[in-house]
Amino acid sequence: MLERFGELLRAAGYTSSELAARLDMVLGEPFAPVSAPVHSRRLGEDALATLARVLLLGYSTPRDRAAEVLAPLGIDELIAAGVLRLDGADVWGAVRITPYEDLLLVSDPDAQPWAEDHVLAPGPTARALDHFTPRTPVGRALDIGTGSGVQALRIARHADHVVATDTNARALDLTRMSAQLSGLANVECRHGSLFEPVAGEEFDLVVCNPPFVISPRSDYSYRDGGFPGDGLTEAVVSAMPAHIRDGGTGVVLGNWFVAPDAATPDRPLGWLERAGCDVVVVHYDSEDILEYAARWNEELAADGTAYGAAIDDWVAYLAGFGAEAIATGAVTMRRRAGASNTRSFQMAVRPGPTAGAQVARIVATLTDAPVDAIAGASVLKVPDGVLLDQRLGAQNGEFVVGTAQFTLPQAAGIAVEAQPAALHVLLALDGERSLADLAAEVAVETDLDAAEIESLAVRAAADLYAAGMVVRAERA
Ligand SMILES: C[S@@+](CC[C@H](N)C(=O)[O-])C[C@H]1O[C@@H](n2cnc3c(N)ncnc32)[C@H](O)[C@@H]1O
């Protein structure tokens, strides 16, 4: 029944690309309605508009109109399937259905107040974990804390079988509905906490977007993990390696306390010290605890007194751990006997859909050679899409060429800086000539010192290599 309903929705244009176009949003972006009244006015009056108003935006429609756009499916069938509800002569969505990439994801409608077991539609953190998940074909996969099923279903497109777990039974019901609507039969739902439902099992790919918020509250299962401090992120990160097959990958999105001294390694690296994994951590700018407390209590902002009290409560709780700032980031681990290589990056720009592929390249560089193995003899190539930004800045009455910054848009958000003199060589990387050969050619053309250019180019190329933004020619 839900499979047929999914087909009806897609045939009516209920897809992320069609609705994005109609609502004047960027095509290909996951759909995130922010303003129902504006969206409603953009939708028009056809069948798709009625479906989107009821199932996405949370409005009702008269029963006759619903019957018209849902035929040949019956309203009663859809009520029995948990999709619709009746209130007098009006039909409402009993759930919200969000088109996300090529999926239809079921979550709870946004009507307030939210129940403790409220299941969220995919939002920014879901998107971030989606971006950091490598999209190579795998056998068995695991998604811990599946919610609407977003990660499990995205992975189900490139895995033979996916196990999705949650402590919230409603989340598992909605994930089953999401899978049926999306026409996927390889997602298995299991109830239980963290790794309990998969004790003793290993997977090729494991992902988790836990309720990682460091919170003194326990109001919502999607937000408040119930562990003290950053203990939930630690529990997930440290237990995950035991469930990853040799050569497999795990990705966790989480929050952790930032050490006051910038030289101290990111906490997740310590949690994985003897885990037999190569690890890459990529994190956003840290937030101070006041900003963090304010952001996670924004739902109270209309009531200044309640909002202020919640902020004070949270700040006192966080300060109790000695915390000044909190990091949000993605931890990627690859299981390998005896592995213990690590690397940490701070994002300079927002991540995008190919972050997982870039991190996989970085993980590969952790094992094949230390970064200082990039030398004059290295032959390197730049992958498609790498961007170079360079600015001119006024200094003592003239414009001076500034440091160059390399980024890979729509990937892991990492930026690498290089001195202007190194660019002569970096811009000429062609997968054929070595760094030393290029430095010698540049020296002849520019009158600069060949050894100095080579040394600057090797240093910059090593940083780019470590960040997955140049590759060895034989791999290109
Ligand atoms: C932030 S939501 C993530 C939902 C979805 N995976 C996504 O990426 O949007 C966290 C999910 O973890 C579930 N959860 C909370 N505590 C859990 C636990 N101890 N074990 C497993 N799942 C848990 C919540 O019910 C919720 O569905």
Tell me what the structure shows.
The chain has 476 residues and is an alpha/beta fold. The protein folds into 3 domains: 93 residues, no CATH class; 266 residues, Rossmann fold; 103 residues, Arc Repressor Mutant, subunit A, CATH 1.10.10. The chain has 17 helices and 19 strands. The strands form 5 sheets. Strands 6, 7, 8, 9, 10, 11, 12, 13 and 14 form a 9-stranded mixed β-sheet that branches. A 3-stranded antiparallel β-sheet has the order 1-3-2. The longest helix is centred in the C-terminal third of the chain and has 17 residues. The radius of gyration is 25 Å and the shape is globular.
How are the elements arranged and paired?
Layout lengths: L1 H10 L4 H7 L13 H8 L3 H11 L3 E2 H8 L4 H6 L3 E4 L2 E4 L2 E5 L2 E5 L16 H9 L5 E7 L5 H7 L2 E8 L2 H13 L5 E5 L11 E6 L22 H9 L4 E14 L9 H5 L5 E7 L3 E2 H8 L7 H16 L5 E11 L6 E5 L8 H14 L11 E2 L5 E9 L2 E10 L7 E4 L1 H7 L8 H12 L3 H17 L4 E2 L4
Parallel strand pairs: 6-7, 6-9, 7-8, 9-10, 11-14
Antiparallel strand pairs: 1-3, 2-3, 4-5, 10-13, 11-13, 12-13, 15-19, 16-17, 17-18
Helix pairs in contact: 3-4, 4-5, 12-13, 15-17, 16-17
Bound molecules: S-adenosylmethionine.
The site of S-adenosylmethionine has 23 residues, from helix 7, helix 8 and strand 7.
